[in-house]
Structure formats: structure tokens, C-alpha cells
Amino acid sequence: MAEMRVVLAEDDVLLREGLASLLDRSGHVVVGQAGDATGLVDLARRHRPDLVIVDIRMPPTHTTEGLAAAHVIRKELPEVGILVLSAHADVEHAMELLASGRGIGYLLKSRVVDVAEFLDTLERVARGGSVVDPALVRELVSVRRRIDPLAALSAREREVLALMAEGRSNAGIARRLWITEGTVEKHVRSLLAKLSLPEAEEDHRRVLAVITFLEAQ
To answer: How many CB atoms lie under 10 A from the CB of residue 88?
Structure first.
């Protein structure tokens, strides 16, 4: 991807500086850094970056200040991609973010270990994709619900949808399942139809399908 302009918000100075250094070395530009949510919103308004990276828990209370800031940015600057970092898999907060539209990512801090994978996640979110941490996907899948909206899907379609929920592209799904990209496309078309999702842009229907998957058993 071309050079990204990024704003970082993280109260852990070492982590923030480490992320900034990684982005700089990878050819991207960190246009601002903040140690609290208020500073993040101000920087986003001023610079209108391609992407903001924010921790959910920030000063002063270390509860949901980062999440609140993410919602403000999404409302005022919907074109800005948002990647939220969290120490824990918080189902409720993740669902709120995913429901807010395209260009959203939710990643556990413990996943920031594979540099290439992390950079790929940032670029996908900046391009408008939605990325969900696999640990969160597993947690949500384990929750039992009385009504299963995925009941009509075949086992293979469920596999494809689970990988979609991890933010993988059709090509990435094909590599993971050892099938052709054309076969993946057929499975995607089929599962979108079976889920009876409203007609919309393909990317938006994929996001809706992922939300349906996350809300199911």
C-alpha cells in the first residue's frame, strides 16, 4: 500500500514509541501521537489521517475513553480507518465498533508480534476493510444462542465466513482452505444469499455477514 498517515493514541509510552518506530521503518508517516483520548480526537481533526490506532483503556479512568474517542472520530471523520488495540477480548465493545461501518479493526495487543501480519492489518483497515482478532471470533463462536442464523450454511460456508470474520481476503481464504479463489467467491455469494442480507455494496454486505457470524452461536 502507498504511504499511510497515522495518528497513534496509547498511554504506554514504550508501546506507542515502538509502534511509531515500526511505522516509520515501514514507510508510513506518524503525523501525531497522543497519550489520552482528548489528544487523539484533536489530532484526528487537525490531520485527518488515513488511520488512527487507539487503545480502548486510556486516562483518566482507564475504562472506555479510547472507545469513546473512536466513536467521535467515526462520526466526524467517517473516511478515517480505526484500529482499536485491547488487552482483552471485549465482545460488547467489539460489536459496537463493527456495527459502525467499514474501516474498523479490533486487535488484541498480544497479537502485535508478527510485524508483517500487523502491518497488513493496518493497511486493510486503512483501505476500508474490517478486521477482527481471531481470539475474539473464537470467544463469540463459543457463546450459545437459541436461534442460529447460520443454520442454513454448509460446513464449508461456515469455514469461509469464519475466515472472513478474521479479515481475510478471498485470496487469503483460498490459501488457507486449499481451494481456488473462484470457489471461495462462489461460497461467499452463496452464504450472502442464505443470510438474506439487504442489497448493498459487496464490501458492506461482507461486513454485515461478519456481524451476523459474530452475533450467532
So the answer is: 13
Distance CA 213, CA 138 (A): 11
Nearest to 84, CA basis, from 162, 136, 46, 47: 136
What does the pLDDT look like over 79-129, one tens digit per residue? 999 998 888 766 666 677 777 777 888 888 887 778 888 899 899 999 988
Question: How many other CB atoms are found less than 10 A from the CB of residue 70?
Answer: 28
32-59 burial code (b ≥16 CB/10 A, e <16): bbbbbbbbbbebbeebebbbbbbbbbbe
Question: What distance in Å separates the CA atoms of residue 4 and residue 83, rounded to the nearest whole number?
Answer: 13
d(C-alpha 158, C-alpha 116), whole Å: 27
Burial code of 10-30, b = ≥16 C-beta within 10 A, e = fewer? bbeeeebeebbebbeebebeb
Contacts of 120 (CB under 8 A, 6+ apart): none
Per DSSP, the three-state class of 82 is strand
C-alpha radius of gyration, the chain, whole number: 17
Verify cis geometry, omega within 30 degrees of 0, for the bond prior to 60: yes
Place of cell 508517516: 29
CA 214, chain centre distance (Å): 13
Q: Strand 51-55 vs strand 5-9: parallel, antiparallel, or unpaired?
A: parallel
This model's pTM is above 0.70: no
